[in-house]
Design goal:
This protein is of the alpha/beta class and 277 residues long. The protein has three domains: 55 residues, no CATH class; 127 residues, Beta Polymerase, domain 2, CATH 3.30.460; 75 residues. 50% of the residues lie in helices and 11% in strands. It has twelve helices and six strands. A six-stranded mixed β-sheet has the order 3-4-2-1-6-5. A hairpin with a 2-residue loop joins strand 5 and strand 6. Helix 1 packs antiparallel against helix 2 and helix 9 runs antiparallel to helix 10. The protein is globular.
């Protein structure tokens, strides 16, 4: 119930924003919602848009400032990592919510970036790990011999600067999903402006497919994260998502019923823009 109210505040009809927020505060509390940090900045922006201020908005401002600071650190470190990889002749494909945070920053909005996702070819994983061993990055040493690139493993999770999360991937989707829906650069990759230069990145359609493919259960925390991320992406990229591609990918994954159930939780009017429901 509380999460549905937060979604209504963040992405629902403007005339319902204040009522949904008041009802959320009656039913729950910011401190009682462990996943509030993900949606908090969006909630703050919607409340500001309708001119609403209460005792809680100062706490929301704090969440936004914290996210902005952490995003700046991650973006700077991501720029360093991408540059080092490019110097080594590796051209990673950028994915994940760092893209959303950069897109939001361009229009003076804040979206928390929880991890840096870099996709490289299987043949480049060893060299990429050599690059990531640079002492200045503070990433614990990992030997490529420890990895079985032919197994069902699709990525490794690393920590850098002791707190930032880096996902080095050689499959753009989980193992079986990547077999069913191979990455096609002409359909899934675009050029993205990043830190004064350009990098390859998953396009909005591919990012949405990736979010949905990773949501393999109806665990509340997983579904809520997908709802927030997908709602944000659909809202920001109206007209840029290839819905036929999304439908074909979800069908190949056998995930259409699950995806339809998730999308049905997205509030109106955003839900009306999803033609595969």
């Amino acid at each position: 119930m509380a999460e549905r109210l937060l979604l209504d505040v963040a992405f629902g009809r403007e005339e319902r924003v204040i009522d949904s927020w008041v009802h959320f505060l009656e039913a729950s509390d910011i401190e009682a919602e462990p996943r509030f940090a993900q949606i908090g900045p969006v909630v703050r922006e919607r409340l500001a848009k309708v001119g609403f201020v209460d005792a809680e908005t100062a706490r929301l401002d704090g969440l936004s400032r914290r996210a902005l600071y952490q995003n700046a650190l991650m973006k700077a470190d991501a720029g360093t990592i991408v540059e080092l990889l490019q110097i080594a002749g590796i051209h990673p494909i950028l994915g994940g919510d760092l893209i959303s945070s950069i897109e939001a920053d361009r229009v003076a909005e804040v979206r928390p970036a929880r991890s840096l996702e870099l996709l490289v070819g299987p043949d480049d994983v060893g060299r990429a790990l050599d690059v990531l061993r640079a002492p200045t990055l503070g990433i614990p040493t990992i030997e490529v011999a420890e990895l079985d690139l032919d197994s069902k493993q699709a990525r490794i999770n690393l920590r850098f600067r002791s707190h930032q999360r880096l996902m080095l991937m050689w499959r753009w989707l989980p193992y079986r999903a990547a077999l069913a829906v191979p990455l096609t650069p002409t359909r899934h990759v675009e050029v993205f402006d990043f830190e004064g230069g350009q990098v390859l990145a998953l396009n909005p359609t591919a990012r949405l497919v990736s979010m949905l493919a990773r949501t393999r259960s109806f665990a509340p925390n997983r579904v809520f994260a997908t709802l927030v991320s997908s709602s944000e992406l659909i809202h920001r990229h109206r007209g840029a998502i290839d819905w036929l591609e999304v439908q074909e990918a979800c069908s190949a994954l056998g995930a259409l019923p699950r995806v339809a159930a998730i999308f049905a939780l997205i509030p109106e009017p955003l839900r009306a823009e999803i033609p595969i429901l």
